[in-house]
What does this fold into?
Amino acid sequence: MKWPVLLINYKAYDNSYGKKAVELSKQIERVAEHFQDINVIICVPAVSISEVSRSVSLPVFAQHVDPVAAGAHTGHITAGMIADAGASGSLINHSEMRVGFDEVAESVKQLSSERLESVVCVDRNELVAPAAMLGATAVLVEPPELIGTGISVSNTRPEVVISSVNEIKRAGRGLLLVGAGITNYDDAKKSIELGANGVGLASAVMKAEDPATKVKELLEGIRSGMHK
Amino acid sequence: MKWPVLLINYKAYDNSYGKKAVELSKQIERVAEHFQDINVIICVPAVSISEVSRSVSLPVFAQHVDPVAAGAHTGHITAGMIADAGASGSLINHSEMRVGFDEVAESVKQLSSERLESVVCVDRNELVAPAAMLGATAVLVEPPELIGTGISVSNTRPEVVISSVNEIKRAGRGLLLVGAGITNYDDAKKSIELGANGVGLASAVMKAEDPATKVKELLEGIRSGMHK
Amino acid sequence: MKWPVLLINYKAYDNSYGKKAVELSKQIERVAEHFQDINVIICVPAVSISEVSRSVSLPVFAQHVDPVAAGAHTGHITAGMIADAGASGSLINHSEMRVGFDEVAESVKQLSSERLESVVCVDRNELVAPAAMLGATAVLVEPPELIGTGISVSNTRPEVVISSVNEIKRAGRGLLLVGAGITNYDDAKKSIELGANGVGLASAVMKAEDPATKVKELLEGIRSGMHK
Amino acid sequence: MKWPVLLINYKAYDNSYGKKAVELSKQIERVAEHFQDINVIICVPAVSISEVSRSVSLPVFAQHVDPVAAGAHTGHITAGMIADAGASGSLINHSEMRVGFDEVAESVKQLSSERLESVVCVDRNELVAPAAMLGATAVLVEPPELIGTGISVSNTRPEVVISSVNEIKRAGRGLLLVGAGITNYDDAKKSIELGANGVGLASAVMKAEDPATKVKELLEGIRSGMHK
It folds into this structure.
């Protein structure tokens, strides 16, 4: 996975699917073209992977994938399905979609077998190395008490970022992303300065009056953090 | 919901999504055109609702929907999403995707608010009336021990169908579908003769060498059961 | 189940288990002896059912039971286990321990096969009749937004109680309990006056400085509501 | 944790609770007294921890513990509860009681805060090091396809044992137990010879006509494996 990363999680907001999602993705793509050094990933609902993938050249991720291969699994989303629809990876174990210990391992394996990337979400730095050792392309650390608050992990709890960066080094593999409360230029810049390979966020962009301008601000923050 | 119903669950089989699903759906549609008196519903993976809906005029259902409205729900499939993608309803509580007692109620409500139909799956006749009272468009009874066996509920356990038909009458609302092991003309015919408003199945069609011919056989069975 | 009911859920508070639970249960029993017309039920953690049952003659309930019979079910609590330990019933589907649609049916059945009572918790009046039809001894309605707030369902949302009372009548079987925010004499009295067969609560007693006095107050409220 | 270990999981069998569990535990204790060099652990249902702990001096484990501290957690089993009841540890994430990725971390932490031991169950050797890094006292590897079959992991899939032993060494902490299909002297002996610190089993003892003799056979197998 190319880095630094700006990972935008569309969640299930009103503008996360259908025509609004396509329009939003095009806006993000236009901004991202001016930041070729940064890997902008968008995570969209399963129903919209196919349509968004056809509309933009940004890497499109699923928000969840089930730990099963093709078969009798009603209502499940498989790695094969999202690959076929145009996704290049998936989130796993998001705080709003937790999965089992064994399921993290199996989901990473299923994604890998389709040559897809995996971003495993965890709620504490102690889980960074275990997730990386399971083969995750990247681990996204998000202290749950800060998600959606606008109070950023990088400015409020820099020690979480620092210790997570140390953990990913200890694992000897994988990238380290941070999230929770990432809202502006400073939050993004600080995260990168502390050693993270990227940031993840949702509401800051999805609920912005002008999402394109917000994405530009965050990308400038990441770039500034890199070049310091 | 118009009835009698033939509900085909694509599950997560290899041919359930992408181009294969579109091709399969077109084949089913061509057969269904000769059975305008029967409501042929196809239940496809979330990733393929949009594409399949655009390709055929058959009613397309989701296989699962989460009991939430739009919002911060990573990895969730909302009624709004599937409606936007072209679905006209969803399965709820399939044996491979069980949900909570309260979630059945909330999912039916969310679907209803999007003017979508709901087919609640249950494993025993005692749950038929409760599910119907929650407002389900239809209840699909499937004894779990027969699912995928090819041993049909209608021929092996007709008492389940009969008591379920009585239960739906007692509830005073909703249709009653039966499933589990429905494989051929006789299984379908017998189900309708016993009073069911339709049948649900998956592997008999999805794993058939010639799915179109199998669908035709099942539709003829349903028609025969109606006209008896 | 004898009624009116005062159902006290010990949850997993510090005083819910061990010696503190036995001491608390004895205090409650001493008060309850003066209210022989009211059925005081205490719901204790699985680890303490045996010890509390031996210490008091109040009916002791489990807080949860799994929908399985004896067998290879590591970590599960069966109806047979709690019966053997001295319980006379169990809560099912508490808002902090939700279970599946089918599991409610199976748990009620398992409890019934051990001649144990079942109190199914639901979050809305639409679920009262379905739960009662599954054979629950009683249904406990608790609007989740009021649980633990001290703002009582009976005083804030009397329409929930009234419609739930109507629903239980419609089902033609089972008792109707209400809960969420029940804290004092008036909350208990009002609940009974509105037609409920009892009230359920937890923190009002478990966190009281003097639990015995609080139980006395609630029992007097119930009695007053009955005799109005 | 002292080793080698013979861990006997009572599951929810008919003889797992109540008087039968006490009697069985006493029988096991009498045999274990002749094998002071082996750590015999019994894992009992939550309802019986207290009674069994008082009856024997063997270390008693819970079969599951929830990842929460004391509080408003109806139906949950906390580390504080089982410690108070006399347990000295708990299984976590048994294949019949899987928990989330974050929950494994939190459960180990909760147990540790009560000075209790933790045995994390996993289904593959890739999860051994991650579980050990979370601080588990021991990791129990059980290929799910062999559980309850009587076909032992040590004789059928020795490579799983060998690679798991390597993984625990890589983690640099924790013991490595193996399970699934362990039935007799040879299975136990072979497991130890391959480098495991102990074996876990259930049905071989719980369903034995003469459990005491079966325990003796297994303990002799372990001893033989050690002294080779």
Q: What stands out?
A: The first strand of chain B starts at residue 5 and ends at 9.
